[in-house]
Structures are given as structure tokens and as C-alpha cells.
Amino acid sequence: MGVITYDVETPSPIPAGKLFKALVIDSDTLIPKILPQAIKNVEILEGDGGAGTVKIIHFGEGSQYKSVKHRVEAIDKENFTYTYTINEGDVLADVIESITYHIKVVPTEDGGSICKNRSIYNTKGDAVIDEEKIKEGKDKAQHMFKAIEAYITANPDY
After folding, report:
1. What pTM did the predictor assign?
2. What is the C-alpha to C-alpha distance for residues 83 and 60, in angstroms, rounded to an integer?
3. The sheet that has 81-89: what strands, in order across it?
4. What is the spatial distance between Cα 141 and Cα 135, in angstroms, rounded to a whole number?
5. Rounded CA separation 148/144 (Å)
6. Residue 125: left (phi > 0), alpha (psi -120 to 50), or beta?
7. Which of 44, 81, 73, 60 is nearest to 144 (CA)?
8. H or E, element range at 48
9. Helices and strands (DSSP H and E) totals, the chain
10. Strand pairing of 81-89 and 96-107?
């Protein structure tokens, strides 16, 4: 099995706690509300949202994929960290065993934050991941991030 790791840091004017709430705590309902073409809905198959929770995410009409299943590995609401693993779904194709995401939202001195995201792709055997597919996924994640920021900015009482 091969391992490919990517790190992305995205600055935001949104305070860390508010951004973490939107990106992690409320994401199952918030993202389908603001980006229904990307995510149709999220079902919790087992658990209460904490570590061990298993979810299935159904993609919207605008996606080339149908769904993914992921497991929450860890969540720390005080330190704004969240880890989950995608282990099923057509997004993995025949080359990826799993993808683990480590998210950490860090407060900045100016009242905003930095969202740090580490993505770890575990390939099947010696399969090679198409770099263009990874770039597409990162671009979609960035679009979703910016849409969440815009929603929070437009709804200051969120």
C-alpha cells in the first residue's frame, strides 16, 4: 500500500470557534442547505457524532459521485480538531483504500483563523493516484470552504 500526504492551510477572517462549528459540528445540515448541488444529505448510520460515528454522505446532482461512507476517528471541540476516514464509496475508485483527513482550526491574532487540513491517501497495492483527481477534490473542498465562509459572513448571528 502506498501513502500520499497533502497539507493545505487556508486563512479565514472567521473566528476559529465559529468556523469549526460550521465546518465540523453543523456541517451535516449546513452544507446541504448552502450547497445542495454538492451534498444532498448526510445520514448517521451509527454513533452520536463523536469518535466512532459512521456517516454516509449522499452527493448532490452536481457531483459525479453518488456517496461516501466515513468514520469519525476523533473530535476535540475545545481544541478545534477533527479526524475522519473515508473508507467506502465510488470516490475511492479502484485505486484508493482509504483517505484520512486531519482538520485543525487555529485562532489568529487578528481574530480570524487558519484551517489546517492534512489529507492522507492510502492506495491499494501499488496503484497510482491521478494527480488531477486529487487537484479536483482539493478545488471542490476549497469551493465548499469559501461557501461556508460566505454563509457565516452573510449570517452574523450564526
Report:
1. 0.92
2. 23
3. 3-12, 113-123, 96-107, 81-89, 67-76, 54-59, 39-46
4. 10
5. 6
6. left
7. 60
8. none
9. 3, 7
10. antiparallel
Residue with cell 461556508: 148
C-alpha cell, 138:
482539493
In DSSP terms, 105 is beta-bridged to: 115
Pairwise CA distance, residues 55 & 71, whole Å: 6
Measure Cα distances from 157 to 15, 28, 69, 131, 151 in Å. 13, 19, 32, 40, 11
What tens digit of pLDDT does each residue of 1-29 get? Answer: 789 899 999 999 999 999 999 999 999 99
Burial grade of 19 (CB within 10 A; 0-12, 13-18, 19 or more) = buried
CA–CA distance, 2 with 148 (Å, rounded to integer): 33
